[in-house]
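Chain entry —
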Amino acid sequence: IGGKRQALKKKAEAEQEAYAKLVSLFDKDSCCANAHQDGKKCDHQCCLDAFAQNKVCLKCNPGAAEQKIN
């Protein structure tokens, strides 16, 4: 059980790290930026789909297309 718990913890940490990189790509005042300021993730389906692919929704954050994640 301990190994499974540790694997879940590592997965959660990796997801948080990936999300933290995406935050820098949010357009000012976008739904994603506003949700992040409130300590949440945006719950729009288009944004959730993008987050699942470690991407930012370009419909809601068009400025992200000009930026790259390092």
In short: The chain has a mean pLDDT of 91. Helices lie at 2-23, 31-37, 45-52.
